[in-house]
Design a protein that fits this description.
The protein has 13 helices and 14 strands. It is of the alpha+beta class. Strand 13, helix 10 and strand 14 form a beta-alpha-beta unit. The N and C termini lie far apart (about 45 Å).
Length: about 325
Amino acid sequence: MSKYVPKELVKKAKEVDLLTYFMNYNPSELVKKGVGTYCLKTHDSVIISNGLWHRFSTNEGGKTALDYLMKVEKMTLQEAVESILNREIIEYKVPKEELKENRKIVIPTEASNNNRAIEYLKNRGIDEEIIQECVDKKLIYQEDKTNNIVFLGYDNEGNIKYAGCRSTGSKRIMRDAKGSSKEFSFRMLSNIKNNSIHIFESAIDLLSYATMLKIKGYDYKNHNLIALAGVYQPSSNIEQSKVPIAIQNYLNKYQDVQDIVLHFDNDRAGRQATKAMIIALNKYNVYDIPAPYGKDINDYLCFKLGLKKRQEIEAYKNYKNQNREQIGVR
């Protein structure tokens, strides 16, 4: 089996300039130098201005985020496109039905310890007790060689069906292990009967929300928390958008669900995904509760804990209110 990047996705990724990319995915990396001009914290010789970027230390430059990620971050084409579009890109030369029946997940090799992964999550504000619980329940571990953190998802029989790898370093790496099924993405389910579910784009946001529940004195173990392993991609005709497979799988098993709470990002993709999900899940009580500040739930947690200054996430402060009418919150 082989994988490739469809031309239409490459074309779509090329439409995103570098400033837009960082504003959407990592605004704290931007350092304003003047009107419409920025440099980067990690690569301070990179200057972004007038829709272009230039790295003076190596005399490289370009316009698109794709150029930057491949030239400066040394990503492959697939990694760069996945990073920009925030979605996994895997195409197989076999029918999807056959692939679903026969594919086997290739789980990344586990490191001798989880020290770096645990430290990474702690630095993102995640509660240490929650981290340790996830380690003990084999929901997360540290990948050997790369030191990536791996988030696991299990089927109803307790078999590993999903493994999402995320970088613990400075590079933005988001990839799913070969053979992963998003039908069984990372989740933490309630210890008691609960007719509501909370949905997040990422495992980090899920763990951030669990941490905030604990801080507020609530038992996070009494809540159903499900991560989608990336932003949900609505149909081009939003009225025809389908329920993500991970959520449909859960709803098929637990048919007493009444309330669904969406905690998607405060960027354009997250707001559009929220609108589509509200339409697709119209038979349920759907609530839109994104982060009050910042791009996502983890941004807000870091702000509340003092790990990020308010100025770093100010760009997203009013995004929810500006788009509220478009979303149609119930």
